[in-house]
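In response to the reviewer comment on reproducibility (Comment 2.3), we provide here a single inverse folding case reported in full, input and output, so that an independent group could reproduce the run without further information from us. The structure tokens appear first.
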């Protein structure tokens, strides 16, 4: 079993974290079954957020009796002090607990600091003083903001997208967090579903001893894979290295990670699917994407208003309208039989 110490927090967690965003898509009982199986299998970190609809409620329902044996990380998107306290109290109630292990600012586009005029960091300090949170964390998608967080010495943990498709800058960020004793929580370790070999993803992560990946789990068979790695962790063999290199070659350059921060679209385009359709259709069973429902989804790109809002909101600075058109043209060629996938 591989464990990770989350930096200065001293919290020891299994190398597998449970990402609880997807359980909002399944029933309460289905979610409880997954959560309890994860805990019984050795997973002890459960990451959720106030913004994940009923995810917190499901964790509270399933795991309240094991509260002292698990680590809970949750988040607030509020940028106002009043909203911060409202979110925190709601999370505590739904999770059936009187404390949060790591409370995180959720995808801020800046690094909250004491005295910055927002009062947000001071609210974190007060919540910690009251015993309602144990440690202060933050999540980010922008590398510049993440670097500032890593250097600020204000945060106990940083949650940031990280996978074997990550750039050298992102790898340097992980190493910087290790140097500064900041726990690094890796979201999107499967790059939004583009990485389809979980063993390769795990083996890559195993190189970073300060990093805990949180896997988004919705199905029992997915959970079974990650639980199996607790006793038999995949090694970075030559075969797995080849898989990683091939994937990197395929996905070099600009591609949509599917984070969804560009949504909603005023033209009702499902941007976080359509902007990466070329990759999805080549890496997964393609039939579902090519059926009538998939065609209707892609045809919505024709309704694009060229408003540029998606481009402005993209944390990866992608030219999203251009990416949508590129994927649509490729999709039409596939439908016409001009391209074989």
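Designed residues, in position order:
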């Amino acid at each position: 079993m591989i464990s990770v110490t989350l930096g200065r927090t001293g919290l020891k967690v299994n190398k597998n974290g449970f990402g609880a965003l997807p359980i909002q898509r399944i029933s309460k009982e289905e979610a409880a079954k997954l959560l309890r199986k994860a805990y019984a299998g050795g997973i002890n970190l459960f990451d959720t957020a106030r913004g994940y609809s009923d995810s917190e409620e499901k964790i509270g329902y399933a795991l309240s009796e094991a509260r002292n044996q698990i680590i809970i990380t949750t988040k607030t998107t509020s940028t106002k002090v009043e909203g911060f306290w409202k979110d925190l109290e709601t999370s505590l109630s739904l999770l059936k607990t009187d404390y949060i292990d790591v409370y995180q600012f959720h995808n801020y586009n800046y690094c909250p600091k004491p005295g910055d005029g927002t009062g947000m960091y001071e609210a974190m300090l007060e919540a910690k003083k009251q015993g309602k949170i144990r440690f202060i964390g933050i999540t980010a998608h922008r590398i510049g903001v993440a670097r500032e967080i890593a250097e600020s010495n204000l945060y106990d943990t940083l949650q940031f997208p990280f996978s074997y498709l990550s750039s050298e800058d992102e790898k340097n960020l992980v190493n910087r967090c290790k140097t500064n004793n900041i726990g690094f929580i890796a979201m999107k370790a499967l790059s939004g579903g583009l990485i389809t070999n979980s063993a390769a993803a795990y083996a890559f992560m195993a190189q970073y001893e300060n990093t805990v990946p949180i896997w988004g789990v919705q199905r029992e068979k997915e959970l079974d894979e990650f639980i199996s790695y607790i006793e038999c962790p995949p090694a970075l063999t030559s075969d797995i290295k080849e898989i990683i290199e091939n994937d990197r070659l395929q996905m070099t350059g600009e591609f949509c990670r599917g984070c969804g921060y560009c949504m909603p679209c005023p033209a009702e385009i499902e941007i976080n699917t359509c902007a990466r359709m070329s990759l999805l259709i080549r890496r997964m069973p393609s039939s579902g994407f090519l059926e009538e429902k998939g065609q209707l989804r892609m045809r919505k790109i024709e309704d694009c208003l060229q408003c540029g809002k998606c481009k402005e909101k993209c944390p990866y600075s992608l030219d999203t309208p251009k990416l949508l058109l590129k994927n649509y043209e490729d999709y039409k060629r596939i439908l016409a039989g001009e391209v074989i996938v």
